[in-house]
Amino acid sequence: MSSAKPFLRWAGSKKKQIPRLSLFWSPTYSRYIEPFAGSCSLFFALSPDDAILGDKNAELIEMYSTVRDRSEEIYNRIVAIPRTRDMYYTLRAQSPATLTRVERAVRFIYLNRNCFNGIFRTNTHGAFNVPFASYRVGAFVTHDEFLRAAALLHRAKLCAGDFGSTLRHVRAGDFVYLDPPYAVESRRVFKEYGAHVFGSDDIDRLRRHLCAIHAKGAHFVVSYADCREARALANNWVSYRVRLRRHVAGFARGRRLAYELLITNTAQSCKITGAQ
Fold first, then answer.
1. Where are the beta strands (DSSP E) in the chain?
2. pTM of the entire structure?
3. What is the pLDDT of residues 165-210, one digit of tens each?
4. Are residues 43 and 78 in the same domain?
5. Among 118, 147, 176, which residue terminates a domain?
């Protein structure tokens, strides 16, 4: 099956880094595993035959499983909803617990496509609280694109939970892509999902998981902001320093060039454009 486009807007998405990240992938790998799934942009681009997609955001994982099972119905419902401020806040005010599984998926995608900057953020009560985006949200994917993405999800096992629970499934021959939220002690970094999702305390745990992945005979690539924590994480592995443009800031003047490390244990020589 051909590749698909991600149908979510997602803060921190690596959609523009796919040409670089794809160089690490080989069809000879037995499975694709991603424990910080987000918009799954690399998964959809690579269209692997077998995959495990995990994320701590249980609403996100439930949405993907519902899209996989009820794609036609969900698409038709989404495109029928007016993309207006009033409708956005009406749907945002709904309690997911009062909705059906399909209604929750429709609400999740609609809010994501029309919220400020594709951010997923909740308040202390767990309620989604991102404001409406008044401009530059972009058109929704086409019917064919949505169904193609849904078809690819049939190839994936979906896991809601901490990244460690997803990584326990790793075995020899797997390819693991890890793109955790940035936890940088020296500066404030935007956090998705609210507090206590991935922090500086988790970096050492991630380091141990990388060693375990390598010991099992699997391959990994980590994307992380170029910082002291990432350089420590990169010890004993191959790393590439690449430039990218941050898109989390809400205004053009806040979108700046930054550097990221790609950390890997893959043995092959990857020709990474712009690497330092």
1. 31-34, 51-55, 156-160, 174-178, 219-225, 238-245, 257-264
2. 0.89
3. 999 999 999 999 999 987 655 444 444 445 456 676 789 999 999 9
4. no
5. 147
